[in-house]
C-alpha cells in the first residue's frame, strides 16, 4: 500500500515536517510494510520555505536585510534541491511579526528587505522565484521591494520618496530604467489567495490596513496614497492597476509584483503542489493524508488541505484530514474532497497543554485511524455476509 502524507503545519505547535513524521509513525505501527511518501506543504504563507526545502531536499540561505521599520534583521529564503528555484516569504523580511505591536505603522513600514532577498537569489543565478506575500507589515504598494531592485519613485521635485505608505502620498514620477535587468529573465510565481483590489472599500488600506496598525485616519490617507500610486502608474507606464484582482494583497505588493516584475498571481497551494511534484506521487497511491491546525468552514477558501484533496479527487483516491481542532463549518470540507476528518484532541485541555502535546496526540490519533482502517480491511464481503445472516 502506498500512502502520501501531505499536511500543512499546526501553527504554534508543529511544523509541516513534524506533522508528516508523527502521522507516518502512527500509521507505520499498524502498516509497517506500507510505502510512505512524506510531502510537507504550505499554502504560500508562513512555512512555505520550510515545506518546499524539505520536500525537494533543498537548503536555506541566511542573510541580513532591511526590516519593515528600517532596521537590519536576520532573514532567510530557500533554494530547492535542484538549485533552480528560490522560495521567498515576504514575511521573513517585511513581516508584521517582525514589528513590536507599539511600533506598527504602515505609513512608514517598508518592503525593501523583500527586494534584497530577491537580489540575493538573482546573484546566485536563480531565475525562477516563488514569492509568498502573506503576513506583511506594509501598505507601501511594494515600492520598497522595487526600490531595492533599482526602480526609482520620485516626488514632483524628482527626489526619491521616503519608505512606506507615506512615500506614495508624495509620488509623482516613476523611473524603471534601472530595474535589475535579470528580472526580465525570470519566471516569478506570486502566491496570492486574495482577490482584493488595490483601492476602495475592499482594497489594501481598508481591509488590511487596520491589521497592520493603521488608525482610521491612516486608512483614509493610505487609500488616497494608493490611488495616487495607481494614477502615476497609469500616467507614467500606461498600465491600469487600480482594480487588478489580487493587486491589494500584502498592502499592494500584488500590483508591484504583477506590473513591474511581470509575475503571475496564483493560488499559493497550487504553486506548492506543482513545486513538490505531488501529482506524480499520486501514481499507484491508495490513500492521501493531509491536515492543518484547524479545519473549519474557512478551510475551503484556498487552504492547503483542500488543494490536496481536490487533486486526489481527480484520481479517485480517498483523503483523510487531521486537525488540532474541528471548528464551525468543518463539515463543508466533505464537499471538496476530504472524505474523513479527525480532531487529534483526546480530551478537553488548556491551549498550552494542547499545543505541547500535539505531537503525541497526533501520533495516537493516526495510529487509531490506521487501526480502524485495518479493521475495515478484515471486514471482507464474505465476513459481512455471514454476520448479516
UniProtKB/TrEMBL annotation:
InterPro entries: Glyc_kinase_flavodox-like_fold, Glycerate_kinase, Glycerate_kinase_RE-like, Glycerate_kinase_sf. The keyword Nucleotidyltransferase does not apply. One of its GO terms (molecular function) is kinase activity. Pfam families: Gly_kinase (PF02595). Keywords: Kinase, Transferase. The keyword Transport does not apply. Belongs to the glycerate kinase type-1 family. This is Glycerate kinase.
Amino acid at each position: 500500500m502506498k500512502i502520501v502524507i501531505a499536511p500543512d503545519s499546526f501553527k504554534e505547535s508543529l511544523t509541516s515536517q513534524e506533522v508528516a513524521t508523527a502521522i507516518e509513525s502512527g500509521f507505520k505501527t499498524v502498516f509497517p510494510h506500507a510505502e510512505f511518501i512524506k510531502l510537507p506543504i504550505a499554502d504560500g504563507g508562513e512555512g512555505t520555505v520550510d515545506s518546499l526545502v524539505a520536500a525537494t531536499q533543498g537548503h536555506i540561505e541566511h542573510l541580513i536585510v532591511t526590516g519593515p521599520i528600517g532596521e537590519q534583521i536576520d532573514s532567510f529564503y530557500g533554494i530547492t534541491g535542484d538549485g533552480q528555484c528560490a522560495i521567498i516569504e515576504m514575511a521573513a523580511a517585511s513581516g508584521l511579526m517582525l514589528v513590536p505591536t507599539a511600533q506598527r505603522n504602515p505609513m512608514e513600514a517598508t518592503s525593501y528587505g523583500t527586494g534584497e532577498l530577491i537580489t540575493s537569489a538573482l546573484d546566485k543565478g536563480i531565475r525562477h522565484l516563488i514569492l509568498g506575500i502573506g503576513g506583511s507589515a506594509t501598505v507601501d504598494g511594494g515600492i520598497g521591494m522595487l526600490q531595492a531592485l533599482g526602480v526609482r519613485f520620485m516626488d514632483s521635485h524628482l527626489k526619491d520618496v521616503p519608505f512606506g505608505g507615506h512615500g506614495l502620498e508624495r509620488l509623482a514620477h516613476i523611473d524603471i530604467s534601472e530595474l535589475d535587468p535579470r528580472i526580465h529573465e525570470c519566471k516569478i510565481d506570486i502566491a496570492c489567495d486574495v482577490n482584493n483590489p488595490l483601492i476602495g472599500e475592499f482594497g489594501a488600506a481598508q481591509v488590511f490596513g487596520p491589521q497592520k496598525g493603521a488608525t482610521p485616519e491612516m486608512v483614509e490617507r493610505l487609500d488616497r496614497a494608493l490611488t495616487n500610486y495607481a494614477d502615476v502608474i497609469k500616467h507614467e507606464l500606461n498600465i491600469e492597476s487600480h482594480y487588478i484582482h489580487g493587486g491589494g494583497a500584502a498592502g499592494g505588493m500584488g500590483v508591484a509584483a504583477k506590473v513591474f516584475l511581470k509575475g503571475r498571481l496564483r493560488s499559493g497551494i497550487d504553486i506548492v503542489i506543482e513545486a513538490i511534484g505531488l501529482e506524480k506521487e499520486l501514481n499507484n497511491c491508495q490513500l492521501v493524508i493531509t491536515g492543518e491546525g484547524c479545519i473549519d468552514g474557512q478551510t475551503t477558501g484556498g487552504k492547503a488541505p483542500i488543494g490536496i484533496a481536490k487533486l486526489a479527487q481527480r484520481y479517485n483516491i480517498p483523503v483523510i484530514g487531521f486537525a488540532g481542532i474541528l471548528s464551525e463549518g468543518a463539515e463543508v470540507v466533505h464537499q471538496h474532497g476530504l472524505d474523513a476528518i479527525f480532531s487529534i484532541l483526546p480530551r478537553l485541555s488548556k491551549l498550552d497543554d494542547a499545543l505541547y502535546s500535539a505531537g503525541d496526540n497526533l501520533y495516537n490519533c493516526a495510529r487509531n485511524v490506521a487501526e480502524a482502517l485495518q479493521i475495515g480491511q478484515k471486514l471482507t464481503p464474505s465476513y459481512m455476509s455471514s454476520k448479516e445472516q
